[in-house]
Amino acid sequence: MIHLHYFAGLKEVAGKASEDIQWTDGTVEDIVKWAADTYRAFDFSAVQVAVNEEYVLETESVKPGDHVAFIPPVSGG
């Protein structure tokens, strides 16, 4: 199992701030594909992904127990 965290607009699209999913092995790219298939309204054009609170590339491995965060660009003023 891995723990997914959604921020800003992604949280609103998913209808939740986080969820756990069954996961055995794969990469960040695999997780992004899963999320894109599950939440078709997600816009991943500028989303950054963090694994265990570290920004990572799509080739980074994701293992059971990891925390994966999808972080879209945000602005403030």
UniProtKB/TrEMBL annotation:
One of its GO terms (biological process) is Mo-molybdopterin cofactor biosynthetic process. InterPro entries: Beta-grasp_dom_sf, MOCS2A, Mopterin_synth/thiamin_S_b, ThiS/MoaD-like. Keywords: Nucleotide-binding. SUPFAM superfamilies: MoaD/ThiS. Belongs to the MoaD family. It comes from the Bacteria. NCBIfam families: moaD. This is Molybdopterin synthase sulfur carrier subunit. It comes from Domibacillus mangrovi. Pfam families: ThiS. PANTHER family: MOLYBDOPTERIN SYNTHASE SULFUR CARRIER SUBUNIT. One of its GO terms (cellular component) is molybdopterin adenylyltransferase complex. GO terms for molecular function: nucleotide binding.
